[in-house]
Amino acid sequence: MLLFLTLLVGFTFIFPRWADWSQNSRLNLTLAIVDHHSLSIDPYFGNTGDYAKFEGHYYSDKAPGPSFLGVPVYAAFRPILRSAPIQALLLKVSQTSAFQNTLNEEGSGLGTEKVEYFVALMVVAFFITCVPSALLGVFLFDFLTLLGLNRSWSLVVVLTFAFATNAFAFSSVFFSHQLVAFCLFTAFYLAFRIHRGLGHPAWVILSGFLLGLAVISEYPSALIALGIFVYTLYVLKKSRWLVGFVAAGVPPGALMMAYNWAIFRTPLPVGYEYSELYTDVHSTGFLSITYPHPEALWGLTFGSFRGLFFSAPVLLLGVAGFIVWWKKKQFRAEWLVSLWAVLSFYLFYASSVMWNGGYAVGPRYLVPMLPFLTLAAGIFAEQFGAKTWAKIVYALLAVLSLLNIWAQTFGGQTFPDWTLNPLFNYSIPNLLAGNVARNWGMVLGLRGITSILPLFLIIALGTGLLFYPLRKRDRRTP
């Protein structure tokens, strides 16, 4: 519970990005369903460029899963949001000097509708992104211990994943990536526990549903879902729960097909074909997919623009971990699923002309495979964690990753866009200028970089409380 709370507070500290096209597109659909009982985002499309235009109406061009999940959340919160006390509180917060200093001087200011929209975004992001992201960390911790990593090292690896990789930047925003990572990894985790005799086979029903939800939240996740699907079949063999596992994935798929049929009169997910601002790229190959390009293969890994290992070099230990994992000759099926998750996503997006992901911290499209790469990093720690050189290497890479990820996450009101080296050309200059992403520290009256201090203290306190009993327990373990 303490690990969950530490992660949850850490993820909710920074506010969702204001005026972000990707978030707005998803929230627009949620609001349209609740407020207008419509799938069209006509009343809202002006706040995003991520839309599809079909027969004179505007629709979100995103996979609808996150928006559907947001409907009950927003519907339940809407009466509270519209109440007089909350309206007065929102107005007061929006007028604080620390918050006002983050606004664009040339912008249109803060109206009541904008504040309401932003708070709705915060609430939906909390339940659809922050909470699943925190749960993901808890499940990752347990998975690592089941692979043989001691609890102290498991905690180190999880905290590194949560706060020093690209996952951190997307754990507070209404994007699909962390939700999909949660769905995929949880499905894998449940099947793994069943395989180890630690869970009832009935849990595969939830696993099947989560795989279906992942696919309708981010279509390419079908690649990773396929690997987990095959793994679960291997685990279940001829179990009577096999039918339930397969059937549980049908409702999300049926919902997606009904959604597309209602709009485009086809059950297929064709929204991107009607993305008015991106027709040129989506017409390249098959919906922007061709073959792995050298530029993308480099750019997604070591490039300064969107390189995974440039922004979070600690993940390089995951690459080494896969080699160690294979040589250990243990958990071979889990090794194969994890490797498939990493390689399939990497090669898929290296084949896309849109591999860079627009506004992002690192390669955002690769975020759903990070928990699987982190498992391999855990195997590296399990093998070499007792050695001094390994502790030094891990610490150095983790610190470099933390500094890079936090700089890019907090530096500026938007994620870095089109610049060769976002860290040095965009993020660090914004931090030095005091242009820090909106966060709860600003609500307390703190400005600039000092507004991040409460988050640092919260994480430090939570980490200390987590480590103290674990260190005592590990010392007692022979």
TrEMBL record:
Superkingdom of this protein's organism: Bacteria
Any one Gene Ontology molecular-function term assigned to this protein's record: pentosyltransferase activity
GO biological process: lipopolysaccharide biosynthetic process
Subcellular location: Cell membrane
Species assigned in the record: Ornatilinea apprima
Transmembrane segments: 117-144, 156-189, 201-234, 241-264, 307-326, 333-355, 361-380, 392-411, 448-468
Keyword list, A-Z: Cell membrane, Glycosyltransferase, Membrane, Transferase, Transmembrane, Transmembrane helix
InterPro entries associated with the record: LipidA_mod_glycosyltrf_83 (IPR050297)
GO CC terms in record: plasma membrane
Membrane topology (UniProt): Multi-pass membrane protein
Protein name per the record: Glycosyltransferase RgtA/B/C/D-like domain-containing protein
